[in-house]
Each structure stands twice: as structure tokens, then as C-alpha cells.
Specification:
Number of strands of chain A: 0
Distance between the termini of chain A: 14 Å
CATH topology of the largest domain in chain B: D-Maltodextrin-Binding Protein, domain 2
Number of domains of chain B: 2
Number of helices of chain A: 14
Number of helices of chain B: 19
GO cellular component, one term (chain A): plasma membrane
Number of strands of chain B: 11
Structural class of chain A: mainly alpha
Shape of chain B: globular
Family (chain A): Belongs to the binding-protein-dependent transport system permease family.
Protein name (chain A): Carbohydrate ABC transporter permease
Keywords (chain A): Cell membrane, Membrane, Transmembrane, Transmembrane helix, Transport
Strand content of chain B: 5-15%
Order of helices and strands of chain A: HHHHHHHHHHHHHH
Radius of gyration of chain A: 23 Å
Order of helices and strands of chain B: HEHHEHEHHEEEEHHEHHHEHEEHHHHHHH
Oligomer: heterodimer
Radius of gyration of chain B: 24 Å
Distance between the termini of chain B: 70 Å
Largest sheet of chain B: 5 strands, mixed
Membrane topology (chain A): Multi-pass membrane protein
Chain lengths: ~270, ~450
């Protein structure tokens, strides 16, 4: 039974929640505001009301072609996430439903690879990409981003699969389902919400990746992270242009996030006692 | 079977020949560059180059300065060959040329006129008499000041001022109640930020980074005088929050009329005198970088963004063709014809400064040239030193060491520690790093 909550407590919590949300969202909001200022206003100091000029957007679009990096970002983010799901669903299934003594260790080991700073393996990976001709190719980066995000994908799916009662799979097996049928027609449909939130979160992670995508590309496969990196200038004013480039780069993912809030929240909070 | 095999061989040979022929017909140059006004202009004019050289295509990769350095260093160190032309500065050229990473540029064609390059810039980009990078824009540092404020305060700044002149003028021009600050200088930490300025200032005080055995010299009276005077000027006559001010922040303050004096890169002169962006465009005077009385040294600040070819490039001839075009006299004239003489890339060619049209449009031309000519990057200090470089020390370790020292000095400016403590910390850090790197035995 829910506890009775007084009206005042409710209002208090609502205000607190909004305040925290605003605090977290503020850097993005201020980037959007700055992008609508002139360069002079942008550097002049803190001001929440811009002059609403689109000058920076025009300059950014005329200096660099937006669509090539945009297309690359979409291909890399979606491609690497789908590839990761293809590998991770069977892996998570095995770990969730046929665990061995070492399953936990394997999961921890996978997660531990995320703890190493990326720059530590820059030179070996750079050399592998050079020798195999994968440098500055979409396919090379897609595979690399898939590998980077794989531990998180496996962990998320594993946590989700564990909530599905094993008896349902047993029943399917009793009815003569093969392993393939079991994963494709029983497990996957039941796990759709979990898979969807995993998919969304990983698209966001891959979209925002800004180390490898800059280090391993020059022109052909450079995504929006490289597009943003090109607008920071050592001499001359650039804050408004940089903000405009950032807004153009994050807008698609922001919209996607907005429409899929429910799945995302579920994806980020599951595992907790429900 | 044999026939199929032969057919296959034949087809492969044909493809290979076609590939070679294709390669000869069209070469794509990948150019790594930074995002500054002159480079963006060059990108816009690339079509003029490709029209004159139909066999060469040009792809630009623009990156933030530090990311560019990181990317290019990785690529060169692994012989990656991702780039055919690099945009690098006077700091990298001597270090990378010594490693054998750059292609010498001693054959840029008969009409290139290498002798027209300003000697100080040419020296900074050469090793053993060979040019390793061609400059497309160069700068020194100088004093920019408000002529109206100086007049109102009753002070004059001579063409070759001393630090005492600057401090007196800064004091007279300060009116903090009206947000009028006598002097704006860099305070943001970084080897290319506050340490570029402070190293030049230290040079002009007779200080040096290292003695001939590579021992750091922050415990010398010259460095103490440098830092003490810098902090006095900034605390008494400088803007608030100066420890986070770099080139761009000071540019904005000066353009809004809040600084009496600004000492920084000569390239700033074209920004502060541009009536479109600057509220004080017609009230700016120029003077040489100051020196301490009795020290014959004006900072020796010199920087040139330059184009170089990495040894790993497989299109070196085409790259030379591009560099010869982009850093030629003809290119300067092309820019002037399209956007006026003010937009011509400054600081690289003596002929530009002899041009009457340029002198008429750029009031800062004479002082820029005098400042560049005065810079000696081969011997930056009046004392004996084991290194080259002007506002930096041309050793690979300097990026790390310079930034660490810059953080101490920035903290002193922010009031978090005293000048003595900052110098002691800088001395200890630098001694440790130099010992670790094997300079100090």
C-alpha cells in the first residue's frame, strides 16, 4: 500500500526534481542560447537572452558540409549497435539461462575492459587499422565501436534476461522448439522492451564517442564528433560557431532521446527491485 | 585451368596498370589544418588551385590545435601516411625535422623566391640551412594600446618601450570604477597560453628557462622579477578573473574598449583595428614588445603556422606543388584581389611589407615587421642557453613542462599561492621532469 504523501511534500519534491533536471540540462540549454548569439555577445559574458541571430549556423554550414559527417554518424551509431545486438543476444542468453561457475567472472572481466583508458591501446589499434586498410573506413569504425560498447550491451541484456522466468523457455523446449526458435520466437519477443532500451542507449553512446572517431578518421568516415572538433579556434572568436556546430551535432540524438524517454529510463534503472 | 589462370593473371595486370594510370591522372591531397581565419580563407580559394592543376584534388581535415597535434604525431610516429600536408608551427618544425619526419622543401620551383621569406621566419623553419616547412602566416608579439586613453591620462608610450613605461602607463589608464583596466595580459594556463607570454617577458627581463646543463632557473632573480612585476600589473591594473583570460578573452575585452594596453601576438592588430568588430578600431597605437632597462632583448616571440610534408606521404610532388602555390607571392596577390590587402596573410614575405597598398590598408604593418625582425629564435635569452625557440623551448618535453609551470603561475595570479611558492613549485616540478627525461645527469 502506498504511503500517504502530503500535498506540501509532493510540491517540494516536484520543485526539487525540476531544479535538478534544469541543472543537468543547463549546459545544453546554454549551448543552444550561445549558438543564437553573435561572436561578440558569446564571449562578452553570461547572458541568457541571445540576439537570435542565425549567423553562426550559416557560417558553419558554409564552411563545412554537414551531411557527410551526419550520414557517417548515423551509419556508425546504428550499424555498431545492431552488430553488437547480434553478438550480445546469444551471449547474454547463455549467461542468463545456462550459467557456469565462471559466468560472473566473465561478466566482470568484460566490464573491466571498459575501465582501461582508451589512449593506452591507441598505437596498437592504430597500427592494426593501418595494416589492414581499415583506417578512415566506416566498416572499421563500426566494428570498433561495436567492440567498445559490447560489454555494456551484454550486461544490460543479461540483467534483463535474468528477469524472464526460465520455465517459459523450458515449456518451449518441451513443445519441441530448437535453440534458434527459442531465442528468436520466445526470448526475443518477451525481451523487446529491454532490447529496445539497450539499442537506444547504445546508439547514444556510439553517437557521442569522440576519441576513436577522431583518432581513426580523416575525411571519408569522419562523423559529427570530428565536425565539432573542427570549429575550435586558437585565435579569433569561435564560441558561437562552436555552439552552433554542437547543436547541429546533438540535435538528432536529442530528438531521438526525447521520443524514447520511457524506454531509456527503464533501460537505465532496471535491475533495481521492482 | 591454365587458360583460366593466365586469363586471371592478365586481368590482374590490366587492373594494376589501370590503377597506376589512374593514380597518375589524379592525386588526392589530404591536408590537416587548424581552424583560423587565414586557413579558412585558403580552403575557400582551393578551387583556384585545382583549376590550375586539374590532376590534383584537395581534401581538408580541420581540427582543433591540440587534437591536430595528437593526430599528426600518432600518424607520423607510426608512418601512417594519412596526411600529405600538415599545418604545424615553429615549435614542431625543428623537433620533427631532426627526427627525419619531414620532407625538406628546398626545391619549390624557380619562381618561388625563397629569399623573399622574412629571414627570422625562414631560420625558425630551417635546419642545417634547409627549409622544412613553408610559412603561410607569421607573428611576433607587440604592444597594442589605446591612443585616446593614453592622451587623456597624459602618458606617452614610446615605439620601443621599457617595462617601466608600460607599468606607468597602465597605472595612469586604470579606472576600475568605469571598468577601465590599464593592462590585459594572458593568464589562462598552458604552454601556448600564459607561458608563451611569460616566457617572452622573462626573456626580456634577461631570464632563461635552463642553464647550459639544463638546470631550470626559476630560482634566479630574473624570473623572480618577471613574475613579481607580472602579478603586480595584473592585480593592480588588470581585469578581474584574469587567470582564465587567453588570447580570445583579451581580444574581446580590448575590442569592447575595456583595456588600455594589451601585449600579445601581432596578428591581433588586424582584429582590433577592424571597424566591423572593434569599438576602438581608430584609436589603437602600436609599440614593440617591452624590455627591462639594460637588457637588450624584446622577448623573441615568433610563431609561424606553416605547411610541411610528412615523410610518409605518397604524394610528395603534388604536395610540393600545393605548398608552392599556397605560400607564394601570387597567393598573397590572389587574396588581396578578392578580399583587399588587409586580408593578406601577414608576416611571411618581405615583398608584402614593401607594397604601398598593403602599408596604406594595414596601419600595423611597420610595427609587425619590426617585431618579427627583432625576434631571434636561435638565442632567445641574453644569457647562454642550450635550446632554441622564442616564447617556448624547442624540446619535445616542453608541452608538458610548460603547461605544468603555467598552472602554478596561473594559480599565483588567482591568489591561491604567492609568487615565491609558485616559482619554487615550478623549479621543483621542472627539475624532476628534466631529470626523468634524461637532460639532467
Amino acid at each position: 500500500m502506498a504511503r500517504a504523501v502530503s500535498r506540501n511534500t509532493k510540491i517540494g519534491w516536484t520543485i526539487a526534481a525540476w531544479a535538478v533536471a534544469l541543472l543537468i540540462f543547463f549546459p545544453i540549454l546554454y549551448t543552444i542560447i550561445t549558438s543564437l548569439k553573435s561572436e561578440q555577445e558569446a564571449i562578452a559574458g553570461f547572458d541568457l537572452i541571445p540576439s537570435f541571430t542565425l549567423e553562426s549556423y550559416q557560417t558553419v554550414q558554409s564552411q563545412n558540409n554537414y551531411w557527410r559527417p551526419f550520414t557517417n554518424s548515423v551509419i556508425l551509431a546504428v550499424g555498431s549497435t545492431l552488430l553488437a545486438l547480434i553478438v550480445a543476444i546469444p551471449a547474454a542468453w547463455a549467461m542468463a539461462f545456462s550459467p557456469t561457475k565462471r559466468t560472473k567472472d566473465i561478466l566482470m572481466w568484460m566490464l573491466s575492459t571498459k575501465m582501461m583508458p582508451a589512449v593506452a591501446v591507441l598505437v596498437p589499434i592504430y597500427l592494426i587499422f593501418l595494416r589492414t586498410g581499415l583506417m578512415d573506413t566506416r566498416i572499421g569504425l563500426t566494428v570498433l565501436l561495436m567492440m567498445i560498447n559490447l560489454p555494456i550491451v551484454v550486461w544490460m541484456l543479461y540483467t534483463y534476461f535474468r528477469e524472464i522466468p526460465g520455465e517459459i523457455l523450458e515449456a518451449a523446449r518441451m513443445d519441441g522448439a530448437t535453440l534458434r526458435d527459442e531465442i528468436l520466437y520466445v526470448l526475443t519477443p518477451m525481451a523487446i522492451p529491454g532490447i529496445a532500451s539497450t539499442l537506444l542507449l547504445n546508439i547514444i553512446l556510439a553517437w557521442n564517442e569522440a576519441f576513436w572517431t577522431i583518432q581513426l578518421t580523416t575525411t571519408n568516415a569522419a562523423p559529427l564528433s570530428a565536425f565539432i572538433a573542427s570549429f575550435s579556434s586558437p585565435q579569433g572568436l569561435f564560441w558561437a560557431k562552436l555552439s552552433a556546430a554542437s547543436v547541429m551535432a546533438i540535435a538528432p540524438i536529442l530528438v531521438l532521446g526525447w521520443f524514447s524517454q520511457k524506454q531509456l529510463v527503464r533501460g537505465l534503472t532496471f535491475g533495481a527491485v521492482k | 585451368m591454365t587458360i583460366t589462370f593466365r586469363a586471371l593473371l592478365g586481368a590482374t595486370a590490366l587492373c594494376a596498370t589501370a590503377g597506376l594510370a589512374g593514380a597518375q591522372d589524379s592525386v588526392t591531397l589530404t591536408i590537416a589544418t587548424v581552424n583560423n581565419g587565414d586557413m579558412i580563407r585558403m580552403q575557400g580559394l582551393t578551387s583556384e588551385f585545382t583549376a590550375a592543376n586539374p590532376g590534383i584534388q584537395v581534401e581538408w581535415v580541420t581540427l582543433e590545435e591540440n587534437i591536430l597535434r595528437e593526430r599528426v604525431t600518432t600518424d607520423i610516429a607510426t608512418q601512417g601516411g594519412q596526411y600529405d600536408i600538415l599545418t604545424i608551427g615553429t615549435y614542431e618544425v625543428p623537433i620533427w625535422a631532426a627526427q627525419g619526419w619531414l620532407v625538406p622543401l628546398d626545391d619549390l620551383g624557380d619562381d618561388y623566391d625563397t629569399d623573399d621569406l622574412i629571414p627570422a621566419v625562414r631560420d625558425a623553419l630551417s635546419m642545417d640551412g634547409k627549409l622544412y616547412a613553408a610559412p603561410f602566416y607569421a607573428e611576433s608579439a607587440m604592444v597594442m594600446y589605446r591612443t585616446d586613453l593614453a592622451e587623456a591620462a597624459g602618458v606617452t608610450i614610446p615605439e620601443a618601450p621599457t617595462w617601466t613605461d608600460i607599468m606607468t602607463a597602465a597605472q595612469a589608464m586604470t579606472d576600475k570604477s568605469a571598468e577601465q583596466y590599464g593592462i590585459c595580459l594572458r593568464g589562462k594556463p598552458g604552454w601556448g597560453e600564459n607561458m608563451a607570454f611569460l616566457t617572452a617577458m622573462a626573456n626580456s627581463y634577461g631570464a632563461r628557462w635552463f642553464d647550459t646543463d639544463w638546470n631550470p632557473q626559476f630560482d634566479s632573480p630574473e624570473w623572480q622579477a618577471t613574475l613579481t612585476d607580472y602579478l603586480t600589473m595584473m592585480n593592480e591594473y588588470g581585469p578581474p578573473g584574469a587567470s582564465s583570460n587567453g588570447f580570445n578573452e583579451n581580444l574581446s575585452l580590448f575590442q569592447q574598449g575595456k583595456c588600455g594596453i594589451w601585449i600579445d601576438a601581432t596578428v591581433a592588430a588586424s582584429f582590433v583595428t577592424d571597424p566591423e568588430d572593434s569599438t576602438v578600431a581608430d584609436k589603437v597605437g602600436f609599440a614593440q614588445f617591452p624590455n627591462k632597462e639594460g637588457v637588450d632583448n624584446r622577448g623573441n616571440w615568433l610563431w609561424a603556422w606553416s605547411l610541411a610534408i610528412p615523410a610518409s606521404s605518397d604524394a610528395q610532388d603534388a604536395a610540393k606543388t600545393f605548398i608552392a602555390w599556397a605560400t607564394s607571392r601570387g597567393y598573397t596577390e590572389l587574396v588581396a584581389g578578392k578580399e583587399g590587402w588587409r586580408a593578406a596573410p601577414p608576416g611571411t614575405r618581405a615583398s608584402l611589407y614593401e607594397n604601398a597598398d598593403y602599408q596604406a590598408e594595414a596601419p600595423f604593418a611597420a610595427m609587425t615587421l619590426a617585431s618579427i625582425n627583432a625576434a631571434n629564435t636561435q638565442k632567445a635569452s641574453v644569457q647562454d642557453i642550450p635550446y632554441t625557440g622564442g616564447q617556448f623551448v624547442a624540446i619535445p618535453e616542453f608541452q608538458g613542462i610548460g603547461t605544468a609551470v603555467g598552472q602554478q603561475f596561473s594559480a599565483a595570479l588567482a591568489g591561491q599561492m604567492s609568487a615565491e611558492d609558485a616559482l619554487a613549485a615550478a623549479q621543483a616540478n621542472t627539475t624532476r621532469e628534466m631529470t626523468r627525461a634524461g637532460y639532467i645527469k
